[in-house]
UniProtKB/TrEMBL annotation:
Keywords: Membrane, Transmembrane, Transmembrane helix
Protein's UniProt name: Spirocyclase, AveC family
InterPro entries, sorted: AveC-like
Transmembrane region(s): 31-50, 70-92, 104-123, 156-174, 194-216, 236-258, 279-297
Domain of life: Bacteria
Length: 355
């Protein structure tokens, strides 16, 4: 009798309740949400300082009303239309199911992820955007711990990129249908093989997207190490070829793979939270998933910059503009950074030491 009473004492019942409540333990969603909160906090700090500095439009070399300029307008319009359509669709789905749909969380996460697009320039200016885009000077000049003296001078396409990232909600939807079709045709296919098959069209799509920007000289990555195309007018790195495919696969996988309850990894073990807190945590977790995919890949690419060769001299002025100086190219002389990576005798400057 004594044993029975002790086994069911209030203290023991409390311990039993804790042991029987696994949903309250931290899982991947909570850890990702914590990372997401830190990343968003860093963004808010950086963007706040950037806005207080009065951002400006970078116009050096802009080739107004040229084919490249009109091409940039077309990309911006397409990005806005597709992203807006995806947002409206996600909101309608949320209303239909009576809760925040995953695609709405993903849309928000991808919007926030656009902040990290040029983090590849952390050490050195490896990646350029054209001043033909609607742009403002980038915010990295106000980011804590960002060492490159070029930070803050490159134009950031605020319309094209901020809306382009949420467009990947559409790709994730299309991939979901393709992957479901593959599963029906090949029963029992493993997740790894499914993603490998999905990588092939993703790489093809990434190549198309790259050419849409590369051929009209709207972006370039001349400092990204191993090149597939290397001419005085064009460079296309293998890192650029792989980027869209590999990154988009991580987004598609997040949306596609669900558990028996239809929940993604960023939504699980949150039942003990209120609906509002559940949405906040899962959205932050989704943000971390998308943003970390960019940061991790870009970090690897940034290291290839230490093996860059001399940048091409055939770029139009609206592309490398004020970022760094290319030897033999007078239109880039007098930059804030100094000689571009790969230039003869190049040594990497640190913020505060550039000429």
């Amino acid at each position: 009798m004594v044993h029975t009473l002790e086994a069911h004492s209030p203290k023991d019942r409390a311990v039993d309740d804790v042991k029987s409540a696994p949903a309250r333990r931290f899982g991947p969603a909570q850890y990702l949400a914590l990372a997401g909160a830190l990343l968003v906090g860093y963004q808010l700090w950086t963007l706040g300082a950037w806005l207080l500095s009065e951002p400006y439009v970078v116009t050096k070399g802009r080739d107004a009303y040229s084919l490249s300029w009109w091409w940039a307008r077309g990309i911006e319009v397409a990005a806005v239309v597709i992203a807006t359509t995806m947002l409206v669709s996600a909101i309608r789905e949320s209303r239909r199911i009576g809760r925040m749909a995953f695609d709405l969380k993903l849309w928000i996460a991808l919007l926030l992820t656009s902040f990290w697009d040029t983090v590849v320039n952390f050490f050195q200016p490896l990646w350029f955007y054209s001043t033909n885009f609607i742009n403002l000077n980038e915010w990295w000049g106000h980011a804590p711990g960002f060492p490159s003296p070029a930070a803050g001078y490159e134009p950031f396409p605020v319309v094209a990129l901020v809306f382009l990232y949420p467009c990947f909600v559409l790709e994730a939807r299309i991939a979901g249908r393709i992957w479901s079709s593959i599963q029906r045709r090949i029963p029992g296919i493993s997740n790894a093989k499914l993603m490998l098959l999905g990588l092939l069209p993703a790489l093809a799509m990434g190549s198309v997207i790259s050419m849409i920007f590369v051929l009209p000289h709207l972006w370039a990555g001349p400092g990204m190490g191993v090149m597939i195309i290397d001419t005085p007018n064009y460079r296309w790195a293998i890192a650029e070829f792989l980027y869209v495919g590999i990154w988009s696969i991580t987004i598609c996988a997040l949306r596609f793979f669900v558990d028996a309850d239809g929940l993604r990894i960023t939504e699980r073990k949150l039942d003990h939270l209120s609906p509002v807190n559940r949405n906040v945590v899962s959205t932050l977790a989704t943000t971390a998933w998308c943003s970390l995919a960019v940061i991790v890949y870009s970090s690897g690419v940034a290291l290839t910059g230490f093996h860059a060769t001399s940048y091409p001299t055939g770029y139009p002025e609206h592309l490398p503009n004020v970022v760094c100086s290319i030897p033999g190219d007078p239109q880039t002389a007098g930059s804030h950074y100094g000689p571009c990576p790969g230039s003869p005798g190049f040594t990497m400057p640190i913020r505060g030491t550039a000429p």
